[in-house]
Amino acid sequence: MVENKNDKIAKGLMADKLDGYLPTREDVDDAFEVPVPLSERARVRGRGEYGVPVMGSKTSSLSRRDWVARNPALETPHVLSKPKADEKLLRIKYMTRIVGDEAVYLQEDWDEAVSEVVKMMLDCAEGVGLVVKNGALGQAMRLVVGQAMLEDMYYMCDSGDVLKVRVEG
């Protein structure tokens, strides 16, 4: 293709106007850094090829006291999960149907509400320094807490009315 005089003038004017707007080769190279292979990162951090700590490496573990001193929010872990739990519980609250003098939950919603309550209880216990020994405690607590909530608690409407709780499904 033959370039005419007007094309050369247009290219020159565009080059002058776009000078500084287009990235240079160095800018592009800096933006797309090549990642360091895992084996090199592992050697730098004192870890083996699969990210497992290597015996005799210079990495040290912290005691619980030091870890909590660095991360004070861990002293009461329930504070970190409370907004998410509140959001779930409010969603479940407004999905409850009012039938006569009863508040009716679907089984899935009830199970989710009980699970959130138990999670918050376990988080509070963790804030006191207690740690769950095995996973069976969570299931047992869900059964006991769910039964207690069903028998000994009422649903309070926005209007202030108190209703019995019933689970369907």
Compact summary:
The protein is of the alpha+beta class and 169 residues long. Helices cover 54% and strands 10% of the residues. A four-stranded mixed beta sheet has the order 1-2-4-3.
Number of strands: 4
Reading the helices and strands in chain order gives HHHHHEEHHEE
Gyration radius from CA atoms, angstroms: 31 Å
Task: Determine the N-to-C terminus distance.
Answer: 77 Å
Low-confidence stretches: none
The share of residues in helices is 40-55%
Notable features of this structure?
169 residues, alpha+beta, 2 domains, 4-stranded mixed sheet, 54% helix, 10% strand
Secondary structure layout:
Elements: H1 5-18, H2 25-31, H3 38-45, H4 64-70, H5 78-95, E1 97-99, E2 102-106, H6 107-127, H7 136-152, E3 155-156, E4 162-168
Parallel strand pairs: 2-4
Antiparallel strand pairs: 1-2, 3-4
Helix pairs in contact: 5-6, 6-7
Give an account of the 3D structure.
By secondary structure, this protein is of the alpha+beta class. It folds into 2 domains: 1-60, no CATH class; 73-168, no CATH class. It has 7 helices and 4 strands, in the order αααααββααββ. Strands 1-2-4-3 form a 4-stranded mixed sheet. Strand 1 and strand 2 (102-106) form a beta hairpin. Helix 5 (78-95) runs antiparallel to helix 6 and helix 6 (107-127) packs across helix 7. The longest helix is centred in the last third of the chain and has 21 residues, at 107-127. The model has no long low-confidence stretch (mean pLDDT 75).
